Fold this protein.
Amino acid sequence: MPVKHFAAYFMMAMAILIGGGSLLLFGVFLVIGPITIVRFCATEHQALLWDGLLSILFFIQHSGMIRTSFRTWLSPIVPHHYHPATYAIASGIALTAAVLFWQPSQTVLYQAEGMLRLLARAISVLAIVGFSWGVRALGNFDTFGLIPIRVYLRGKQLRAPNVIVRGPYLWVRHPLYFFMLVLIWSAPDVSLDRLLFNVLWTLWVVLGAYLEEKDLVAEFGEKYRHYQKTVPMLFPWRFPRGSKL
């Protein structure tokens, strides 16, 4: 097997294993709660500071590596077709660390019981279904950065991306973020560390959406500006007017 093929398959395997594994862990964390593998001998305030630091480190990695300026800096070091897979691997490592080393709080703020608990779980399921709907609406949603590598192995050129406006993208410009927020806040049990998680990750999702908007405007220009004028960014507060751009 040629060296370039071995490197390509290795990158794809690592992206799937690390990226996919981290998403599974994160899903369990959101629905069930912390799955901490190491408990520190720390006060509650120290544990919360640690949890905040884990979150911020993930935010820096996840939002920083996706910026155009970072990809430009990375190009002389890592071939362009490996950038998305490298991003998936780095994000997977950062997310796995955040989930496995998260320190739970013993202070419980509220626990939903009875019908409220069932309602919260139903909302969580609907959020997961909505997230899947958003992924399917994108068509070739490349979660782990595999498409550029496959195109490279075939000796072809990667197709230019386009603005997808169908399904949930008729309602909001970032439906995956919207359903993620619904999933975050639909937890029936909220301790002090979970409240910290909810607040920090909500702020990051909103900020990340604004930063992503700048890149999308730079990439698609007037086409995306028109999309911004006709479809809300995160919350579906009006009915869609159609799919024409």
